[in-house]
């Protein structure tokens, strides 16, 4: 069986997913939709697909699944629309910036029985998955503490901040999902702090560019997250899981993993400087997992409920900063 896929959105992330579809056995890109005709035509031509409107894709009998890479404020409506049309759905995070809107959207997904997978690509990074595999194998005993470092090389422009939903809903939300993935439990309480140390304009817009968060589960497991919008040395992505019998960690990745030794000392190449190069393998693996889920009839993961859980943590983090206290997820 070949899964015929339509891509909604031909921008930066749409191009990444188009490449992943082409590389995935059992999947074929048949249609591309985008408000920018030039972008849609270029991507469709590159992969032998057709340019179609969203209306046409919805009605297309030869489309089994859609990948949603459109602006965030369109995600929930499109998910509901294609769930009702009987298509399997892969959607970039988040479903929406509103908790209530996400809940109403997921209700439609449940009622229609649609397949919905959310784009938390870091779960599919081979290094992070290897860490999880060691945890699952019991090598480090019971998980007790997790540390996640996630720092961008530079801050986005203020125009992006206005529409992104802020650092916790846009950037840290990946770390919130990774925390749940590694802790193996839902988060119970959130304590967060945030500052604007990189760009004062970000602070004037009511957002943060530097943040620290402590997550605690009901059993007492903890995760500490460190975020910054400025890492002069590259795209900083590290995790460590500490357990009752040891620890397992994933270090930063480089385009080339070499070390040069001279009389001046030891040097290594710089880190990746962009999330798309750092997580190339993860993007490919998540699309392969989506195809496997649809064809095999197995539950999609991460699911819409995983997306809701991460958004609830983000909301709790914002409330924690505003009220200067630990916030329970049950309050959100």
Automatic annotation (TrEMBL):
It is an enzyme of class 1 (oxidoreductase). GO terms for molecular function: inositol 2-dehydrogenase (NAD+) activity. Pfam families: GFO_IDH_MocA, GFO_IDH_MocA_C3. Keywords: Oxidoreductase. The keyword Cell wall biogenesis/degradation does not apply. It comes from the Bacteria. The keyword RNA-binding does not apply. Its EC number is 1.1.1.18. Residues 128-248 form the GFO/IDH/MocA-like oxidoreductase domain. Residues 3-120 form the Gfo/Idh/MocA-like oxidoreductase N-terminal domain. Coiled coil: none annotated. Belongs to the Gfo/Idh/MocA family. NCBIfam families: myo_inos_iolG. This is Inositol 2-dehydrogenase. It comes from Roseibium litorale.
